[in-house]
Amino acid sequence: MKRALISVYDKRGVVQLARELVSLGWEIISTGGTGKILRNEDIPFRDIKEITNFPEILDGRVKTLHPHIHGGILYKRDEEEHKRILKKLDIGSIDLVVNNLYPFEDTIKKEGISHEEVIENIDIGGPAMIRAAAKNYKYITVVIDPSDYGRVLKELRTRGETSLDLRRELARKVFQYTAYYDSLIANYFNCLNNVEFPDIITIPFKDKQELRYGENPHQKAAFYKEYNNLDGTIAAAIQLHGKELSFNNINDGNGALEILKEFDEPTVVAVKHANPCGIGSGKDLLEAYVKAYECDKISIFGGIIAVNRIVDEEVAKRINEIFIEIVMAPDYTQKALEVLATKKNIRILKVPNIMKNDYASYDIKKVLGGVLIQQRNRDLLGQELKVVTKRKPTEKEMEDLIFGWKAVKGVKSNGVLLAKDKATIGIGGGEVNRVWAVKAAIERAGDKAKGSVLASDGFFPFKDSVEALAKAGVTAIIQPGGSLRDQESIEEADKNGMVMIFTGMRHFKH
Question: Where's the MGS-like domain (predicted)?
Fold first, then answer.
């Protein structure tokens, strides 16, 4: 008689599985909670204590960790010495293991959870048992996912046994599952011990989303989500309209959200190819949208828009005047949704808690041969702002300087931008030379550059950028400072009656 050991935390479908196994002539072995359900359903089974001749002990911490269980799972069916040992020790074969683990992931997500409860939800016997079964997949079937019950039963009905291909596939799922499970535990202890960069890093991701392709059509791609609270991220977005998101949509959308989180007042961020092409803040969302749009009316076409207020009908109508790939917002009025949805190809995303920004996650970049890992760039300013020129900023200049400094954090280096009236008017990013970035921003701003301020993500190595800005009519500059030639830039600013502020903090973005 074939025997199945069934001990599951997630009990979906377990009654139907056990009932059909019995009908196929299998004997069921079970434990505590699962056994209670089977007993209530009048499904015959043997309690694990009958197999081990040993009671569950230590509040259930030890029940399946026993030679009569692991011997029955791990022996090689085609090796005579293994069979002789099992017969001598009166250990019966276990041919199917159905198990899933204590809900460690759900436990650590609970508010106010105690460390003691977390520890008790670290499964020991379960991982040992399913790993043993997966190791011996040549002979034994292991199932951890209720969605696989049907596949197993279908083969047992038609073949009398499972195929090697199915057993190998189910074993693969086990090892991925236990690796993920252990990575959650490792990360919990890293946080508990304030270890930011452990000697060995394991970062759990889940819920694979197949993408049509990567950055280019010839590249395959997928999107995996983090296990923790995803509010305020594109991973948590609820898609209300439009076709599925692409690799570039997700990457650009994340860039837009990262920038948006810097601003408290009504703000619109427009992004194209991972770089902002317009950022505006205003008394309401409509004013903010107009400012973002006016920065670069060409580049915003086919771009991504992220906003931090509810989109109303008026704003939706303005957005619909051009082609936009994605709109991301905390919510939409019904009228706004109706307006936006008239465009077939626009993707409308609702992002819960869009301004959440207290993530403890890493910023990760894959390189050939390894990964670069750093903290997220959550800080904005150094210890103090330092006015290094003779002239001090006006209140209006200071307002625009801070706006520009927040905005330039999201521009690829070398990155600069011109700002006026809490709106970007010219952006220069991704240049290998800072003066080129400055000249690009001035050119894009045109006549609007006069009376604007400039924010630069890094210091000015030479005074040439200040000369170009003064000629364009820019009145104030905010930059990190720290160049050996800082004094030359300061003197050039003084010569032209400009303000220069050092932040003591740079914001390179690569």
Answer: 1-144
H/E stretch holding 459? none
Provide the token pair at 411: 């521009």
Sign for the pseudo-dihedral over CA of 495, 497, 501, 507: negative
Task: Give me 145's structure tokens.
Answer: 């996912």
The answer to whether residue 173 sits within a structural domain is yes
Q: Residue 65: pLDDT band by 50, 70, 90 thresholds?
A: confident
| Domain end call among 193, 215, 246 | 193
- The CA–CA distances, whole Å, from 389 to 356, 392, 468, 478 equal 37, 7, 17, 11
Q: Read off the amino acid at residue 186.
A: A
Tokens of 194: 């304030």
Helix %, strand %, coil % for the chain, to 5?
A: 40, 20, 40
CA separation for the pair 257, 263 (Å, rounded): 11
What tokens were used for 491? 């003197």
Tens of pLDDT, residue by residue over 464-507, are 999 999 999 999 999 999 999 999 999 999 999 999 999 999 98
Which positions ≥6 away from 143 have C-beta within 8 Å? 96, 97, 98, 99, 149, 152, 170
Q: Are 472 and 448 in contact (CB under 8 A)?
A: no
Least confident of 82-86, 96-100, 228-232: 228-232
Q: Is the CB of residue 274 less than 8 Å from the CB of residue 382?
A: no
Q: Is the pLDDT of residue 382 over 80?
A: no
Residue 206 main-chain phi, psi, to 5 deg: -150, -175
- Counted domains in the chain: 3
d(CA 17, CA 31): 16
Strand partners, 328: 306, 349
Distance CA 319, CA 323 (A): 8
Torsions phi, psi of 42, nearest 5? 55, 35
Residue 133, SS3 per DSSP: helix
Q: What pLDDT is stored for residue 208 in this prediction?
A: 87
pTM: 0.86
The CATH number linked to 346 is 3.40.140.20
How many whole angstroms separate alpha carbon 167 and alpha carbon 97? 11
Query: Where in the sequence is the domain holding 484, given as residue range(s)?
Result: 386-502
* Domain boundary, last residue among 168, 193, 218: 193
Cα 363 to chain centroid, rounded: 10
| pLDDT for residue 63 is more than 80 | no
Rounded to 10 deg, the angle between the 464-472 and 434-445 helix axes is 10
pLDDT for residue 196: 87
Does residue 418 lie within any of the structural domains?
yes
Q: Are 418 and 442 a contacting pair, CB within 8 Å?
A: yes
Q: Are residues 14 and 161 in the same domain?
A: yes
Residue 423: its pLDDT value, please?
97
Active-site positions read 135, 273
Checking if the pLDDT of 361 tops 80, the result is no
| Burial group, residue 37, by CB count within 10 angstroms (0-12, 13-18, 19+) | middle
